[in-house]
């Protein structure tokens, strides 16, 4: 019965889009491609994502080492836990574009970015710039090293040649940032409400 409805819908769809002869695709494939073009992740794509997730280095969260991460940052091609994914979302999609491994649909380009990334590869790349793995998420992903890695993933996905720029060691000045925040808070409490 279900096949009848699918075939019937297929014939109607061919008439609606003015095809004289149905294309050489199965009715299911044709209808999916024509009427649901944004539902991109096919079974082979889902399988590719699971294979990437099953690699030993991707079985733990990129940022906190929690086991079995179910979220990913497409910008870096890394897997992460729910808690770290919420911190990544707070960075903005221009820094880290986050998707659920199980609940979101994935495009071919997004899968390619995940294949080019890998938790350990990103950590090693960022470490070259002097950024320790244990650096907090906000600081780590707002570094030049993270920006270079994002650009690398984007370029390789687009099929462009990529040459790593010279490595310039970065220094993390999180203590300095904390001092500024404390001073700002003190001024607010004391009553100096200057425009910053």
TrEMBL record:
Keywords: GTPase activation, Metal-binding, Zinc, Zinc-finger. SUPFAM superfamilies: ArfGap/RecO-like zinc finger. CDD domains: ArfGap_ArfGap1. Residues 46-162 form the Arf-GAP domain. InterPro entries: ARF_GAP_AGD6/7, ARFGAP/RecO, ArfGAP_dom, ArfGAP_dom_sf. Gene3D superfamilies: Arf GTPase activating protein (1.10.220.150). GO terms for molecular function: GTPase activator activity; zinc ion binding. PANTHER family: ADP-RIBOSYLATION FACTOR GTPASE-ACTIVATING PROTEIN AGD6-RELATED. This is ADP-ribosylation factor GTPase-activating protein AGD7.
């Amino acid at each position: 019965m279900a096949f009848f409805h699918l075939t019937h819908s297929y014939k109607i769809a061919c008439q609606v889009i003015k095809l004289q002869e149905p294309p050489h695709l199965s009715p299911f494939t044709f209808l999916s491609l024509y009427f649901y073009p944004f539902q991109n992740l096919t079974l082979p794509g889902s399988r590719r994502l699971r294979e990437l997730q099953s690699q030993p280095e991707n079985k733990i969260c990129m940022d906190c080492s929690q086991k079995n991460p179910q979220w990913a940052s497409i910008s870096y091609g890394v897997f992460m836990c729910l808690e770290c994914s919420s911190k990544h979302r707070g960075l903005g999609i221009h820094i880290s574009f986050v998707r659920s491994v199980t609940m979101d649909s994935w495009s071919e380009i997004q899968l390619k970015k995940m294949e080019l990334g890998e938790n350990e590869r990103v950590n090693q790349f960022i470490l070259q710039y002097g950024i320790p793995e244990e650096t907090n998420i906000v600081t780590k992903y707002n570094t030049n090293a993270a920006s270079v890695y994002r650009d690398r993933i984007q370029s390789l996905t687009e099929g462009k040649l990529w040459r790593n720029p010279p490595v310039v060691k970065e220094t993390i000045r999180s203590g300095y940032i904390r001092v500024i925040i404390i001073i700002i808070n003190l001024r607010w409490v004391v009553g100096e409400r200057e425009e910053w």
